[in-house]
Design brief:
With 263 residues, the protein is an all-beta fold. It is built from one helix and 17 strands. It folds into two domains: 35 residues, no CATH class; 192 residues, Jelly Rolls (Sandwich), CATH 2.60.120.
Length: 263
């Protein structure tokens, strides 16, 4: 259908465009009106991310516009399984626990010497747009390094850097640190790492803490959840780990208020 050339109409001061497109880009805007009747605009990406709380989180996969792009989905609700069907190997003292629960009936507990999970994603899963997110509960935040997630080649890495006293997100040779530490022990935090083309960004509890531009790289599909390097043992609990081959977030957002959809 050809684009209309008619002059936009106006309703209560709001110009309503008449042009028609069949495909909207993530950075295109959706026009909305809030509960007070005030018009505003929101990007397509953030609009979709906000459906049913945030990040496309409803009760079923139909509530998540990116569900088909989810590569790994591990609720840790009663078992250590990937909803997408990938085999998971458990090493060390990584166990399902009811001691700390974010959603569902349990979480996974990392304690002791070098606890970790390992699996293999599909080819190229980490080499394009990406959202890596999970909830984490730190038992302690001290001077010891604590790995949370990594590729086996350490191209991607999320860890508590004890020397810096901050969370570290690593993409290739680029390290993202917040200007100040905004984590506390003995409570749940939503952690998210985003790659969108040549931009990377990290969020803690929905707040952007660091960003950078990068030269895109390719990483192995072999991933480690928990300890990546022996001696840098994870020490805490994880819930609702999800890897999506899309950039779900581009601005500050409300963290998910329920478990990610699994069916």
């Amino acid at each position: 259908m050809p684009l209309s050339k008619k002059k936009p109409t106006t309703n209560s001061g709001l110009q309503i465009p008449t042009s028609i497109k069949t495909i909207a880009g993530n950075n295109d805007y959706v026009l909305m009106v809030d509960s007070n009747g005030i018009p505003y605009k929101i990007t397509k990406a953030n609009f979709l991310a906000g459906l049913s709380s945030s990040g496309g989180n409803g009760n079923t996969s139909s509530d998540d516009p990116y569900f088909s792009d989810v590569s790994l989905l591990m609720p840790f609700d009663g078992s250590i399984v990937d909803i997408k069907g990938k085999a998971i190997t458990v090493d060390g003292s990584a166990v399902i626990s009811t001691e700390q629960i974010k959603y569902g009936s349990s979480s996974i507990k990392f304690s002791g010497s070098n606890p970790k999970l390992s699996t293999v994603l599909e080819t190229g899963a980490l080499n394009n747009n990406l959202t890596l997110e999970f909830w984490y509960y730190f038992n302690a935040l001290g001077t010891a390094d604590q790995d949370l997630f990594a590729t086996s080649d350490l191209g991607l890495l999320i860890e508590w850097d004890g020397g810096e006293g901050k969370l570290r997100f690593k993409y290739g040779s680029t390290n993202l640190y917040p200007s100040t530490n905004n984590l506390t022990p003995n409570g749940w935090h939503h952690l998210a790492f985003i790659r969108n083309a040549t931009a990377i960004q990290t969020f803690v509890d929905g707040i952007s803490i660091a960003s950078s531009t990068i030269t895109p790289q390719s990483f192995t599909e072999n991933i480690l959840i928990g300890t990546a390097i022996n001696g840098r043992s994870a020490n805490g609990y994880m819930s609702n780990l999800r890897i999506t081959k899309q950039a779900r977030y581009s601005a500050n957002f409300t963290p998910p208020t329920q478990a990610f959809p699994t069916i």
